[in-house]
Amino acid sequence: MSFHTIIIVGNLGKDPEMRYVPNGSAVTSFSVASNRQYTDSNGQKVKETTWFNVSVWGKQAENVNTYLQKGSTVLIEGELRPDKETGSPRTYTRSDGSTGASYDINARTVRFLSSKGSSTDGFADSGGGDGDEDIPF
């Protein structure tokens, strides 16, 4: 038996979407952008954004749908789910022609790091992008 956990901090790329599965359980889906900024060996600032597609279930799904919105800062703890066909992240083509990837996470815990109506709460560098990145979904 194997087990892994991934922890990310980022901002919602769009408002959460909740639905109910046939057994009556709530599931909420949303995208999270996690940014990393560093200076490369040439002294140039580099900004990388990694996108995650997050699913959360049950009462926590209902809370996420009620209290989070596009731009909200969250900490996600969960399990990484690879593409069933390839075993890899989902890839897509950005509007500039470059290739990007997004990762699917089944969340066990969603911690709210910003209050409703506040998009960063001190986590501006972990933001949802500055418009340069295309949301892949």
Structural description of this entry:
The protein is built from one helix and seven strands; from the N terminus they run E-E-E-E-H-E-E-E. The protein is mostly beta strands. A five-stranded mixed barrel has the order 1-3-4-7-5.
Topology:
Blueprint lengths: L5 E7 L4 E4 L5 E14 L5 E13 H10 L5 E9 L8 E4 L5 E14 L25
Parallel strand pairs: 4-7
Antiparallel strand pairs: 1-3, 1-5, 2-3, 3-4, 5-7, 6-7
Outline of the structure:
This protein is mainly beta. It is 7% helix and 47% strand. The longest helix is centred in the middle third of the chain and has 10 residues, at 58-67.
Kindly state the number of beta strands.
7
Order of helices and strands: EEEEHEEE
* C-alpha-based Rg, rounded: 15 Å
- Structural class, from secondary structure content? mainly beta
The strand order across the widest sheet is 1-3-4-7-5
What fraction of residues sit in β-strands?
Answer: over 45%
Terminal CA distance: 33 Å
Describe the structure using short key phrases:
5-stranded mixed barrel; 1 helix; OB fold (Dihydrolipoamide Acetyltransferase, E2P); globular; 47% strand; single chain; mainly beta; 137 residues; disordered C terminus; 7 strands
